[in-house]
Structure formats: structure tokens, C-alpha cells
Design a protein that fits this description.
Number of strands of chain C: 10
Shape of chain A: elongated
Distance between the termini of chain A: 13 Å
Distance between the termini of chain C: 18 Å
Number of domains of chain A: 1
Number of helices of chain C: 7
Chains: A mainly alpha, B alpha+beta, C alpha/beta
Number of strands of chain A: 0
Structural class of chain C: alpha/beta
Largest interface: B-C, 29 and 38 residues
Radius of gyration of chain A: 17 Å
Order of helices and strands of chain A: HHHH
Helix content of chain A: over 70%
Structural class of chain A: mainly alpha
Oligomer: heterotrimer
Strand content of chain A: under 5%
Chain lengths: ~140, ~400, ~230
């Protein structure tokens, strides 16, 4: 496979989405805040887990920029799996609060699912485009 | 051939095509997203009106000083208050009152099961005409002691048990969405709530420590007889029954209805503005692009393309761009509204209930049709101009 | 086979001493199948105007143009377009490729306008071979030189095996070797039964032509005929 290290638009899109996850978990769509006495609710740990997974995906997306085309395919596959894991964190793997109107349910969970789904779509599209490009070059 | 050539033309200039697709996406996003918002707001209001059921609600006048009655029943912030049952009898005896049903309120504390206080509402299954019809949509069996129904926004644990004041309550059904704070409340029969009030008193967590739970009610819901004016009956109660205040149920939601109307107007204005701007830009962009490609169209005429074929080529390119853009816009709008409907409801402070899938699909189809029609209209002028291109431009001698 | 009868062309002026500009004086002209006819003359003399009119692309002020018995300008646009597509191949001046298509796709374009059955890709490749750009078939038009694009246009004009071929400066931008190849192709095309018109400044073209005309100030005169 040719070693193409050119940064494409899709690389930027993936990077932006993967960075959005940890930044969003920290500032844009965080879990519910702590009680007055400082105690945290169930969703706090879900938020922390999303932050961690998002940071890992962000790091992988940055590293990915410097990989060869073939290695990028592997990174894309990893991102698809990571993002699937991310989607399951809030509500499925880690419980959230009791009321659907609370921030963890209303904002954090849908935002995480949407961003992770977009990451999966972008990574899958990148895989398809790279394979097509390789086939065209071989011809 | 036209489809193939259109596809080649569009993929040959990806930047230009992407810009046109983006414009079409804005059109679809605004009209579909905006309409979905308006419909959801309307559905929320309709559902709320249906749920209230009663014409008049009577509460103790002392409650007014502690709580905004409108807020209590519709906007969240759980509360509770009590009055002697005899007031309910007095209200029931007034002229024009057809049916009464009493409710008993309590608020849980943010401890034990719940991370936030929960509104607890007790009703009398024998006389109730607001909660029971709603409950029967999902649960047809008897609601016994210890059984509770929960609003759609309450997440039920695996074991189906919610504990309030150390009393286990069995969740038997989840009610359908209203888009109001009724969705975060918990409902049980009078015996269940009386037991909970007693438990709260034992733990010193109830500000009404002296009341006897079986001798009080929190609110009396009234249905007015046919032929009587609801306003007159309300005034009559306020004048003749002391220490209570009667409120028209419709007034409780009139503020919401006004806000909804205002919000709908704002959304409609937004859609109109986006459409005016996007269509104008699209028309100019199309005209410029077709002008730039005049030579190409002249070549096609020289090769034997008829005027109709050329116009068809332009229209098919426009249709492809608009279709792709509209689908993208609709998908984005769905992504923005559906998963975040709870956040939207909270942000707007208005009842917000997404319509059923069939209606949403219909709306999407209508939005798609509108975008395609608008795109076709905008490109039609360019299509006519292109079809009239002078092919002899190609072979005219250079001076 | 393609006859211009009493054709003349005036353009209305907006200002100026006379009411109109006479681009083409009244003339009768015919292209016969199997013959190469050359029209030469200075720029602005009216050669391209005549070519436009013969191609069915420019309505004459007076006169008729007949392909066999069919009066071209009496047909509605749809019918005339189909007839031109089928029977009249045109090699225009300048760069006339569609930028979004490859060389092969451009050559097949006339067939694709009213597509029927399988595209004649083999014939397209053969034509590209004959004009010397077979190795460029998958290249996009934007990457071709002026000469390569001109040769593509010649191949495109011949894809439908037209009854008439009208070529406006087909050897412009070509080197000597390619010029000779193109003129030979014109000769061979005529031999196959096509009526060929060459509008050109190329001195070499006269060797391949059966008749040479000169256009001056819109007036056509026969210079030589075989």
C-alpha cells in the first residue's frame, strides 16, 4: 500500500469529532453537578468515563495524522470500536440519574451518542474512500 | 445520459457542489426542524390540556403564599399542602359542580432512591377523572395499596421498586408523555400516599406534622355541569367557601399557550428568513455557475443536444443537489431535535412532545417536497437561459 | 448532399451608417459525399459564418440549407438537434472539451446525448488511436494541451460516422507530424463516404482537398477543383 501521509479533509473531520468528545464531556455536555454537600450522583462516574474514553480517542486521532494510509485504516477501525464503547457508557454500562429531565439524560447521553455515531460514520467513510483510492491507483 | 452527465458535472467540481448542497441543507434543516419544533410544542400543549381534565382546581388559600400553584402543577419544583376534607364537601355542594375528585400531594426528599425531590400525587380511583383515563392507556388493572404509576421521565430501577421515606412502592405502569412536570411525578391511590405522609411525619421530614392523613386533601378537582359558566362557578366557590382558592385550569395553561404561540411565531420568522436568504443565494449562485459554463452548453448544442435536453441537464443537476442537501438537512434536524428533546423542553420551559413516527415521516416528506420544488423554481430560470445559448458562439470567428 | 441555396447572412447594426453588416453575400454552395472541400481566407472574411449556417447552428437571413431533401431550418429544434447529432459532425475552433469528463467520455458524448444500446467504446478508441492520443483516454480534459484537445474534438466529431464533417481549423495548435495525420484522417473519412469541409489557413490542406474556395468579405469564389 502506498505511503500517503497527506492530511485530508476527513482527517480533520475525525480529529475535530474526537476532540469534541472529551471537551464536550468536560464543558459542553457534562453530567449533573454535585449536591450542595459535595456528594455526587450516579451520572458523575459516567461523565468521568466518557471524558477518559474521549481523551483516548482524541489522542488516537492526533496520532493518526502522522500515520501512513494503511495504518490509518487500522486507526479508523479502532475508532469505530472505541466510539461504540463510548456510546454504551452513559446509561447502559454506567447508570444515570432517576429523572429523564436531568442533564445527564437530557444532554450528556444524547450528545455522547450523537458524537460517537458521527465518529463511527466518518471513520467508516474514510475506510471506504481509502480502499477506493487504492483500487483506482492500482488500475 | 442526462443523469450520467449531471453526476459527472457535480462530482467534477466537489467544492462548488458541496456549497450548493449546504444551501439546500439549510433550507431543509430550517423548515423541517422548525416545523417539527412547532408541532412538538403544539402536541405538548394539547396533551397537557387533555391531562388536566378538570375545569376548576381548588387548593387551600395558604398554599398560594408558599407556592405558585401554576408552577406546582405544571412547571416542576415539587410541593405539598393540605386542607380539611370538609372543604371538599362544601365545594361539591356548590351549584354547577357536576363531579369532584380529591388529590393528596407529597414531595419526596433527595435521599434514598432519588437524587432529586419527586412530586407524589395521590388520587381516588373511585372518583378520579384526570389521572385514571391517562393511566388506562398503559395499565388496566386495579391500583392497590403500595402500587404506583410513574411519569414518562422517571427511570424505573430493574426491580421495579421505588422507595420513599423508607416505604417500598411497586411501579406498576409508566404513563405516556405530556411534556410537562407531570412526567416527573409519581401517582398512587390515597392509601398509598397516606402511608407515605405518615412515614414522612415519623422521620420528621414533613412540615405538617400534626395532620391526620385520612382527614386531609391537597386539591379538589372539579368538573362543571353543562350549561354553567366555568367562571361563574369559580367565582361562586371563591365567595362562598372560605380558606380555599379556586383557579380555572385553563388559566393555568394560558400562559403556556401564549408562550407557545410566541415561540411558534419566532420559529416561523426564522424559517422565512433562512428561506429568503438561501433561495436568493442559490438563485445567484446557479446563475453564475451556468453563466460560467456557457461555453460547455454551447458545445453540447453543437454536438446535437436540443434546448429541452440542455434545460433537462440543468434541472437534473439542481434536483440532485437539492435532493442530497434536503436529505442531509432533514437528517441533521432529526439529529438535533430527537435525541435532545428533553433538553429542548427544559430549555424552552414549555411542554414538548415529539409527534409519532408516522407524522414525523410525513413532515420530512413534505419538507423534502418543498425543498425540491423551491430548488426547481430557482434553477428553472437558469435552465431556460441555458437552453437559449447561442451555439454559434463556439464557431464564431475570433477577431 | 449538403447544399446551401441562395444563402446570405446580415447582422443588424445598432449604430453606424448602414442598417446592417453583411457577413455573407448571397451564395450557392454544396458539399458532395466522398470529397474534401477547403475554404480559406483571412480572419473575419465569413468562413466560420458559412460553417455555422451549414452546420444548422446559425439561421441564414435568406436562403435554405438542405441535407439531402431536408430543409434544416424548417425543422423544429428537437428534430434539427437529433439530425445534427446523427448526420453532421462539427470540429469547432478552440478548446471545446467538457472539463468534468475524461477524453474517452468526451469522445462518446455525441452518442450519449441520445443513447442507444452499448456505447461504441471500441470505435472511440480506434478514433483516438488514429488521432494519436489513445494513451490519454482516461485523462481529464483539463490536463490536455491545446493540440491534444483539438485532436479529441476531431475524434468526437467522427464517433457518429456522420454524413457531413465540418472542421474549423482542425490543425490549429498541431505540429507538422500531427497536422499531416489529421489531414490524412480527413482524406480517409471522405473516402469512406463523408462530405468533408475544412475551414483552414493551413497551406498543406490544399494537397488533401478536392476543391479549394476562397472567402473574401463574405463572397465565396472557387480557386481550384480536382
Amino acid at each position: 500500500m502506498k505511503k500517503s501521509k497527506k492530511i485530508t479533509a476527513m482527517d480533520i473531520v475525525l480529529l475535530a469529532l474526537c476532540l469534541l468528545l472529551p471537551l464536550g464531556a468536560a464543558w459542553i455536555f457534562p453530567a449533573c453537578g454535585a449536591h450542595e454537600d459535595g456528594s455526587v450522583m450516579a451520572c458523575h462516574w459516567a461523565g468521568r468515563a466518557v471524558l477518559g474514553a474521549g481523551a483516548a480517542m482524541g489522542a488516537l486521532a492526533v496520532l493518526r495524522l502522522f500515520l501512513s494510509s494503511g495504518a490509518k485504516l487500522g486507526a479508523d477501525a479502532a475508532l469505530i470500536l472505541f466510539a461504540g464503547y463510548g456510546e454504551m457508557l452513559p446509561g447502559t454500562l454506567i447508570s444515570l440519574c432517576m429523572m429523564s429531565t436531568m442533564r445527564c439524560h437530557a444532554l450528556m447521553k444524547p450528545a455522547v451518542i450523537v458524537v460517537c455515531a458521527l465518529i463511527q460514520l466518518a471513520a467508516a467513510a474514510d475506510i471506504l474512500l481509502r480502499i477506493r483510492r487504492e483500487r483506482a491507483e492500482k488500475r | 445520459m442526462i443523469a450520467r452527465l449531471s453526476f459527472k458535472n457535480l462530482t467534477g467540481r466537489p467544492g462548488r457542489t458541496a456549497a450548493l448542497v449546504l444551501l439546500a441543507a439549510f433550507l431543509a434543516f430550517s423548515i423541517f426542524g422548525g416545523s417539527l419544533m412547532i408541532l412538538s410544542l403544539q402536541r405538548g400543549l394539547d396533551g397537557l390540556e387533555a391531562r388536566l381534565g378538570a375545569d376548576i382546581i381548588v387548593v387551600p388559600s395558604s398554599a398560594r403564599s408558599k407556592f405558585n400553584v401554576n408552577d406546582l402543577l405544571l412547571q416542576g419544583n415539587p410541593g405539598y399542602f393540605y386542607m380539611n376534607k370538609s372543604y371538599a364537601d362544601q365545594v361539591a355542594a356548590r351549584e354547577g359542580v357536576e363531579q369532584v375528585s380529591c388529590q393528596l400531594y407529597l414531595a419526596s426528599v433527595s435521599a434514598g432512591c432519588c437524587s432529586v425531590p419527586v412530586q407524589i400525587i395521590g388520587f381516588d380511583p373511585a372518583t378520579d377523572f384526570t389521572i385514571l383515563p391517562w393511566a388506562r392507556e398503559t395499565y388496566r388493572e386495579e391500583i392497590g395499596r403500595g402500587d404506583i404509576l410513574v411519569g414518562s421521565d422517571v427511570n424505573v430501577p430493574q426491580d421495579g421498586i421505588l422507595r420513599f421515606y423508607n416505604v417500598d412502592c411497586r411501579v406498576v405502569a409508566q404513563l405516556s408523555k405530556t411534556g410537562s412536570s407531570l412526567d416527573t411525578a409519581v401517582y398512587g391511590n390515597q392509601q398509598t400516599i397516606q402511608a407515605l405522609i405518615a412515614a414522612s411525619q415519623e422521620r420528621g421530614l414533613n412540615q405538617y406534622n400534626q395532620i391526620e392523613t385520612d382527614k386531609v386533601v391537597s386539591a379538589v378537582l372539579i368538573k362543571v355541569k353543562n350549561g354553567y359558566d366555568v367562571e361563574d362557578v369559580k367565582d361562586d366557590i371563591n365567595i362562598h367557601v372560605r380558606k380555599v382558592v379556586a383557579v380555572r385550569a385553563s388559566h393555568m395553561i394560558s400562559g403556556i399557550a401564549d408562550s407557545l404561540a410566541g415561540m411558534s411565531r419566532l420559529i416561523t420568522l426564522f424559517i422565512a428568513a433562512v428561506w429568503a436568504l438561501c433561495l436568493a443565494v442559490m438563485a445567484v449562485a446557479f446563475a453564475m455557475i451556468m453563466n460560467e459554463r456557457k461555453k460547455e452548453f454551447a458545445v453540447l448544442r453543437v454536438l446535437g443536444a436540443s434546448r429541452g435536453r440542455l434545460a433537462g441537464l440543468v434541472m437534473s443537476e439542481a434536483a440532485a443537489v437539492n435532493l442530497l442537501g434536503a436529505l442531509a438537512g432533514i437528517a441533521l434536524a432529526l439529529l438535533a431535535v430527537l435525541p435532545f428533546s428533553a433538553a429542548i423542553e427544559k430549555g424552552l420551559g414549555l411542554p414538548f412532545v415529539i409527534p409519532d413516527a408516522g407524522r414525523v415521516l410525513l413532515l420530512a416528506a413534505a419538507a423534502l417536497g418543498a425543498c425540491l420544488a423551491a430548488g426547481a423554481a430557482v434553477s428553472a430560470l437558469s435552465a431556460v437561459r441555458v437552453s437559449r445559448v447561442d451555439p454559434s458562439l463556439m464557431i464564431r470567428e475570433e477577431n | 448532399m449538403l447544399r446551401a441555396e441562395g444563402v446570405l447572412k446580415h447582422y443588424d447594426r445598432l449604430r453606424g451608417s448602414s442598417n446592417y453588416f453583411c457577413a455573407l453575400q448571397k451564395l450557392d454552395f454544396a458539399l458532395e459525399p466522398g470529397r474534401v472541400t477547403e475554404i480559406t481566407g483571412r480572419s473575419g472574411s465569413g468562413k466560420s459564418t458559412l460553417l455555422n449556417i451549414l452546420a444548422g447552428l446559425l439561421r441564414p437571413t435568406e436562403g435554405k440549407v438542405r441535407l439531402e431533401q431536408t430543409d434544416l431550418y424548417a425543422l423544429p429544434d428537437g428534430e434539427l438537434s437529433r439530425l445534427r447529432n446523427r448526420a453532421i459532425g462539427v470540429v469547432p475552433q478552440g478548446q471545446t472539451g467538457l472539463r468534468s469528463l475524461t477524453v474517452l467520455e468526451n469522445v462518446l458524448l455525441p452518442w450519449q446525448l441520445y443513447s442507444r444500446g452499448h456505447a461504441p467504446a471500441a470505435r472511440a478508441r480506434e478514433l483516438l488511436e488514429r488521432v494519436g492520443i489513445a494513451d490519454l483516454e482516461q485523462v481529464r480534459i483539463g490536463e490536455l494541451s491545446g493540440g491534444e484537445m483539438r485532436r479529441m474534438a476531431i475524434a468526437r466529431a467522427l464517433i457518429m460516422q456522420p454524413a457531413v464533417l465540418l472542421a474549423d481549423e482542425p490543425t490549429g495548435d498541431l505540429d507538422d507530424e500531427n497536422t499531416a495525420a489529421v489531414l490524412r484522417l480527413m482524406r480517409d473519412t471522405a473516402r469512406e463516404g463523408t462530405a468533408v469541409l475544412l475551414v483552414t489557413h493551413e497551406a498543406e490542406a490544399a494537397r488533401y482537398a478536392d476543391a479549394v474556395y476562397r472567402m473574401e468579405a463574405g463572397a465565396l469564389s472557387l480557386q481550384a477543383a480536382k
